[in-house]
Design goal:
With 363 residues, this protein is of the alpha/beta class. Helices cover 28% and strands 24% of the residues. Bound molecules: zinc ion.
Length: 363
């Protein structure tokens, strides 16, 4: 019988408890993974600090990577790209397991399908445990998109794929082609800087990053932003600045990772004719936006929203990191590293610092 250590989250404001549980027998189609590395996502921090609520007890952590430790009968013989899956292979997997035959999955929205299973967001209950990143083992449920990783991408960077990088890949899918076009990216946190890098690699002509933090804007520049803008004194100056610096260059795509209503409203005002705005950051309760329908119509704008991502986004995220992990300073985004026994110190550090990510080396 294998046992797994795990860090259990019971309530906001309470330390995680380090516990141990037997690894249950695998069910048909499941894959047992020995987790190697987990990064603490903003949503983990928000749950830990009480800004968002999750059913408890739970195992936090969903940006993670590990190696296959067991394959149940009926487990997929190959990954999303057709590569064989064997014990010992390093794999990353999507944040969700969803029945591909369900109506929303068939529409390309598996992350919203009925009966969704979401790693790092499930309660521990009889018959269902080991579903989060802060544990030695994770059981991949049936219908989890899995990808074998052979490229020598460092573990902290691989951990970023299945939340941050895949979500950004999804937002670029919705935005449409960016090659040769001007893109504005609001919010230069983890998603925003990954978006700068992804737009750069996709051939964007001009990338403009907006944030209220100067150090984050400096990071955005390292990840491919051509120009940065601090909207602290309002957005009023930005249209003129854009018109002066890039005359005749309309903003084709606006990506909002900030979740700030004033910012999203300003982005709509900056979009050129035929432009597309994608909102990704506003995953918390907030006021309604003020949108001028006449402007929307006359400028033929499109506004889209995205929460999480689908399998094609996940594959795109893996392939982006495999190709570009050394092109940008991704390693500098995972500032500190803790072990599982020090997980409470990891959360304390992540909340006290302005780190893009804090890493937890599991084994
Ligand atoms: Zn996340």
């Amino acid at each position: 019988m294998i046992t797994s250590r795990l860090a259990v989250f019971h309530a906001a404001g309470r330390p995680l408890t380090l516990e141990s549980t037997p690894v249950p027998p695998l069910q048909t189609g499941e894959i047992l993974v020995r987790t190697e590395y987990t990064t603490l996502c903003r949503s983990d921090l928000n749950t830990f600090s009480g800004k968002r609520t999750e059913p408890v007890p739970t195992i936090l952590g969903h940006e993670m990577v590990g190696r296959i430790a067991g394959l149940a009968p009926g487990a997929p013989p190959t990954d999303c790209r057709g590569a064989a899956l064997r014990v010992g292979d390093r794999v990353t997997w999507a944040i969700y397991a969803a029945d591909p035959a369900s109506p929303l999955a068939r529409l390309g929205l598996p992350q919203k399908a009925a009966g969704l299973f979401k790693y790092g967001h499930e309660t521990i209950r009889p018959g269902s445990t080991l579903h989060g990143g802060l544990a030695e083992y994770c059981i991949l449920r049936r219908h989890t998109p899995v990808i074998r990783i052979d490229a020598p991408v460092p573990l902290p960077l691989l951990a970023l794929i299945n939340c941050s990088v895949a979500t950004v890949a999804g937002s670029l899918r919705l935005a449409g082609p960016v090659a040769g076009r001007t893109v504005i990216i609001a919010g230069a946190g983890m998603l925003g800087v990954v978006a700068c890098a992804m737009c750069r690699c996709a051939g964007a002509k001009t990338i403009i990053a907006l944030d209220i933090a100067a150090d984050r804007l400096a990071t955005a520049t390292q990840f491919g932003a051509d120009h940065t803008f601090h909207p602290g004194s309002g957005f009023a100056a930005l249209p003129q600045e854009l018109a002066t610096r890039w005359p005749g260059e309309p903003v084709a795509v606006a990506l909002d990772y900030s979740g700030v209503p004033e910012t999203m409203e300003a982005l709509l005002g900056l979009l050129g004719i035929g432009g597309t705005a994608v909102f990704i950051g506003a995953t918390f309760p907030q006021r309604s936006l003020q949108i001028n329908a006449e402007q929307l119509i006359r400028k033929v704008h499109t506004i889209k929203g995205l929460h999480n991502y689908n399998e094609s986004d996940f594959v795109a995220a893996v392939e982006f990191m495999e190709r570009n992990y050394a092109r940008f300073p991704f390693a500098t985004l995972v500032h500190e590293e803790f072990d599982l026994a020090s997980v409470n110190a990891a959360f304390a550090h992540a909340l006290a610092s302005r780190a893009y990510r804090v890493g937890v080396r599991i084994c």
